[in-house]
Design brief:
alpha/beta; Rossmann fold; 8-stranded mixed β-sheet; 10 helices; about 35% helix
Length: about 250
């Protein structure tokens, strides 16, 4: 790190658990964020501010007026612009040292695997089960840690799947993929704006801990928040030996 970087990241460096070595690992880190909306916005902002070396920001959608209540990466004058490209502008304003690669595309299985192979950590900030399960399959196949978040109405959740460990559960272990699952979208039910900030910020915190090699990740734990009553609870879960995604064949 040069002198300006030592100054910029000094409040991280002062933390005994993190220090210069931890910050250097963050600077060398590569992260894929799928979704530049309510969760991806705060997650990307904090990762960029913390100095993550490369952020790949993927979102095929465009900025809409209804997004601006919670999707803090975007601005009124960018309505109609692709969200990944809009996010790149904001992240460059926060920290011009960070390399931000915007991907204004819908990611299919092959593309997800290609991108996952090139990063250290994947953040699932999407808003539908099909994408979540596709991301999980890519992370399981390539043994990449997955930081997953969700928020709807006043309820949010965060978990981490350290899929480079043989005994670690995957997203499918906790939420098995099924055709009869009813999708709940904030476009129909609504979402409390600060809740997306809370969950997205927690995803960023877990990703930074993983990159720096500090603390204990939320692996095997689902952290739930009820922001209306501001109550938190944690639920433990284990790997499913018969999981169709990460279970051993036979």
């Amino acid at each position: 790190m040069d002198d300006p970087q030592l100054l910029r990241y000094s409040r991280h460096i002062l933390l005994d658990a993190l220090g210069v070595e931890g910050q250097q690992r963050i600077l060398a880190g590569r992260v894929l964020i799928v979704g530049a909306g309510g969760l991806g916005s705060p997650a990307a902002l904090y990762l960029a501010a913390a100095g993550v070396g490369q952020i790949v920001l993927a979102d095929h959608d465009t900025v809409d007026l209804t997004n601006l209540q919670r999707q803090i990466l975007h601005r009124d004058n960018r309505i109609g612009m692709n969200k990944a490209l809009s996010g790149q502008i904001t992240l460059a304003e926060i920290n011009p040292e960070v390399s931000v690669i915007p991907l204004p595309e819908r990611l299919d299985t092959a593309r997800l695997e290609e991108l996952t192979a090139a990063v250290d950590i994947v953040l699932d900030c999407s808003d539908n089960f099909a994408t979540r399960h596709a991301i999980n399959r890519a992370c399981v196949r390539l043994k990449r840690p997955l930081v997953s978040g969700a928020a709807i109405r006043f309820d949010g959740q965060v978990s981490v799947y350290t899929l480079d460990r043989a005994e670690a559960p995957c997203y499918h272990c906790l939420f098995p993929e099924a055709d009869d699952v009813e999708e709940t979208r904030c476009a129909v039910t609504g979402v409390f704006a600060p809740l997306t900030g809370i969950v997205g910020s927690m995803q960023a915190a877990e990703a930074l801990k993983l990159l720096a090699g500090i603390g204990r990740p939320l692996n095997g734990r689902l952290l739930l928040i009820d922001s209306l009553d501001m109550q938190w609870r944690s639920s433990r879960f284990n790997r499913d030996p018969s999981c169709a995604v990460c279970g051993k064949p036979g």
